[in-house]
Design a protein that fits this description.
About 55% of the residues lie in helices and about 0% in strands. It is an all-alpha fold. The chain has one domain: Non-ribosomal Peptide Synthetase Peptidyl Carrier Protein, Chain A (Orthogonal Bundle). It starts with a helix and ends with a helix.
């Protein structure tokens, strides 16, 4: 989780990723941020977030994104 928080904080240092659970809903993250996150996560965690997982609920919070990463790690 710490590595993910570093990725997210590098994108938006002003956002409290520990508590925010409306990152997409409140337009804190835009499509360019999502693409960047997917790329950074692929490199850091060696997982591929395929199109079927690019849904707001997976990117609305750091916790949801981390849960997705763990799920993808378990599948590989």
């Amino acid at each position: 989780m710490e590595e993910l928080m570093e990725i997210l904080t590098a994108l938006h240092p002003d956002v409290d990723f520990e508590t925010c659970d409306t990152l997409v809903d409140d337009k804190i993250l835009d499509s360019f941020d999502i693409v960047t996150i997917i790329s950074e996560v692929a490199e850091a965690f060696d997982v591929t977030i395929s199109a079927q997982y690019i849904l707001p609920e997976h990117f609305n919070s750091a916790r949801a994104l981390y849960d997705l990463i763990q799920k993808l790690e378990d599948e590989e």
